[in-house]
Amino acid sequence: MTTAYELAGKRVWVAGHRGMVGSAVVRRLAAEGCEVLTAGRAELDLIRQADVEAWMEANRPDAVVLAAAKVGGILANDTYPADFLYENLMIEANIIHAAFQVGVEKLLFLGSSCIYPKLAPQPIPEDALLTGPLEPTNEWYAVAKIAGIKLAQAYRKQHGRDFISAMPTNLYGPGDNFDLNSSHVLPALIRKAHEAKVRGDATLTIWGTGSPRREFLHADDCADALVFLLKTYSDFEHVNVGSGEDIPIIDLAHLVCEVVGFRGEIVCDTSKPDGTPRKLMDGARLAAMGWRPRIGLREGIADAYQSFLATADAAPSAPMKPL
Ligand code: GFB
What we know:
By secondary structure, the protein is an alpha/beta fold.
């Protein structure tokens, strides 16, 4: 079902506006003629139900983009399971329920491709959800995100609310987390390649075997897809948001080194986890609605590298401490 939702003149709360995706959504919404609402951490703690309810009551947004989440790479997910499960459950439960209470017209919840079973068919269709066991390194985050999808569906089913969900693939771009302990692979490789180049190292070490495949989408493409869904999609089922192509991590490492200009050797640290072998999403549903990504991987990496160089993150990092 495709229903037009006019954003012009609406008050749209982007929860998580300081994050990579939230900030990209704020940039993208500038073209829609809506009023963008944001709330910084000091003003609003999304873990606290009473605070979220009071903020919603006082601000009464027409639409909500729920991009706030506790996120991190494979090691952070594996090391802090309680934080990833608890914080994400609280954030989504508080916001979705408060949106129901104040009569929000449209809510878009963001999940992740890790909601799908570890050994899901590739490319992964939306209906692979809950058909098999999850990848153990991120099952805590995945369970929280599955609960978020179900919450949005439950308010649609029980109360007729126009709450929808999008499942983005692995994202990267400006404003990413470049901390080597907690980041995802792409920002980690950008930082490692940059620092190895500056130091004149002979080698660069990546985690795992390098054989897992991942699909990457630039945050600006993701934001464009999310605004597209907000305006045109109104249905029960969540929608995959990806680039349609995946790449082995070792090839990604070579590509990042090329873009950054590091010419040394790449070494694999197999004491670190590989995670799921492959998670390429089936983007046919979103493509059939008329949406396409625009930013190619090489171009996107060059853009992310430029944004890394423009931040204090480009200063040499302290030696990596164990988590
Ligand atoms: O991006 P990443 O941390 O998360 O790792 P996942 C992807 C792959 O890159 C894994 C490898 O096979 C890593 O072992 N890798 C190689 C590295 N070198 C590095 C490195 O220096 N840093 C990192 N971080 N990885 C996350 C989930 O899974 O993806 C989250 O844990 C979420 O829940 C997110 O779903 C999108 O793709 O494995």
